[in-house]
Amino acid sequence: MSPPASGSALGATNKDLGQIRKQETESSSETTVGPLQKEHASPMPTTTQQDAVAGTKNDGAGLGRTDKKELKEEDAWDELGFAFPTWKKWTILTIIFLVQTSMNFNTTLYSNGLEGISAEFNVSMQAARVGAAIFLITYAFGCELWAPWSEEFGRKPVLQMSLFLVNIWCLPVALAPNFASLLVGRALGGLSSAGGSVTLGMIADIFEPNEQQNAVAYIVFSSVGGSILGPIIGGFVEANLDWRWCIWIQLAFGGFVQILHLLFVPETRTTILLDRIAKKRRKSGHDSNIYGPNELQPFFQRFTFRELMWTWLRPFRMFLTEPIVLTLSLLSGFSDALIFMQIQSFALVYKQWNFSTVDLGLSFIPIGIGYIIAWLSFIPAFRRNKNERERNPGNDHAQYESRLWWLLFTAPCLPIGLIIFAWTSGGPPVHWIGTMVGSMIIGIANYSIYMATIDYMICAYGPYSASATGGNGWARDFLAGVLTVPATPFYTNIGGDRHLEYANTILFCISMVLVCAVYVIYYYGPTLRKRSPFAESLAAAATKDPQGHQLQAARLEHTHVENVASVHEPARSGRSSLTRVPPEPMSEIGDSSASAVTLPAR
């Protein structure tokens, strides 16, 4: 999905890289210290370091005897997720699509119960909206907190635990005897949501780098689509049922996708599968000295509290210190927050045309149409980008910034859609269709911004895109949550008689500034990346291989693309694995913590 960090657009697949590593392993007399470890650890590993990885016992005379060998991907390729047949991959992906949809569905369906909550608990409508905001805010942090565990324990048990907890926390909301209980249940539900930290991570487990873009686009659609599915269904619920049914329906949907996931989605995490395969081979007598990557060291040696804290904090540090991350995350977060603000504002807009509750819910369909248009438009854009990278393997702009090319045309849809929505939202005699055209154009921009910024950050930051895209996802959820509560006062207290028009015009002006940043990054991205310690350390690591620039570039491409969409993985010192990445600069974190690549939570 991303080019080599060095700028060389090698077309090496995971399987090709596996053969490269297998040849190296054979030529080094079956040493269990993998080539990536050699590159990213100290140039001359000590005997102790080698022993820690290979399980070597020293006899006191400097002679080592290897008792344990690590099972590598190339040694069990046919049993890993990459080798699944196409129908199985897309079956898994479709169930994950539904899982992700259910998580985002939970963020918005609650808003259709606001009037019932306000009446039953004797709180204002504005106070009732806190339940929507607190779920989104805790969701933003919850995705980051869940992140490391699927790398250590596997995708399936972690996602099952997340779904179980989200479903459990629906109960105190649905059965809430008071408003405080409701807020506690919503907060815990958001904090329990793993989101894209796991669901998108599974793409990297089963798709090779050159196959991933369409899969990522599919799951991105489930994320943005789930957010508008809530109000569409919620209109019918609000019109015909008690507000508590908004929560019961969330629980029913969540329970359904959890059962689907339990029954039909196998474990896909590569390191977990290698552990299982190694145990199976030892038990069968095939090789009594073969061990999986997670078996060679105790859990607490591989997963220290310090490493975990640095991993969790890195997205926020990059968000604040990296201009590219900050700008694109704010743009992505702002466009997503607009959707949640509109959920609160549509009632104000469409009551002027006497829309019923059901009609109000259906007014979100144009946003969904915009998402579909944007999704389909990226298919030829992916092909164009791939061809450009292949034609210009040594051109940095072609390898990185060209991924933003389609966004140059779709990002302006955000201010265009906002200004159309603004000046058609004043009510009769203007027809309501104008606002829906504006909403559809905003939908095109929202999907495009999310998809393109993720793709670019993964490419530009390599192994550090775990943090870069983590900041992107955090910004989307956090800004959406923070802006949910003030949305209604914003739309009602600005501009006098034309409060709706002027409020949306302000959003139009903000979006113009953010969209301009896309063009700056597209044309001046190489200069900005040279000033980034994260991006530059990746480029420097790509040139350190003394045996050949291309091989090292291919390995780095494999390393960071293999884990696209995966969660933040702490450093595993002394462990040879294809998930190993170059250490961060000492000035940044003070140790050799590393992180696998991730996609944002939503």
From TrEMBL:
The membrane-topology field of this record reads: Multi-pass membrane protein
Note whether NAD occurs among the keywords. Answer: no
**Cellular localisation:** Membrane
Single GO cellular component term: plasma membrane
GO terms assigned for molecular function: transmembrane transporter activity
Q: Which residues form the Major facilitator superfamily (MFS) profile domain?
A: 92-529
Q: Which UniProt keywords apply?
A: Membrane, Transmembrane, Transmembrane helix
Q: What is this protein called?
A: MFS multidrug transporter
Q: Which organism is it from?
A: Podospora appendiculata
**Taxonomic lineage of the native organism:** Eukaryota, Fungi, Dikarya, Ascomycota, Pezizomycotina
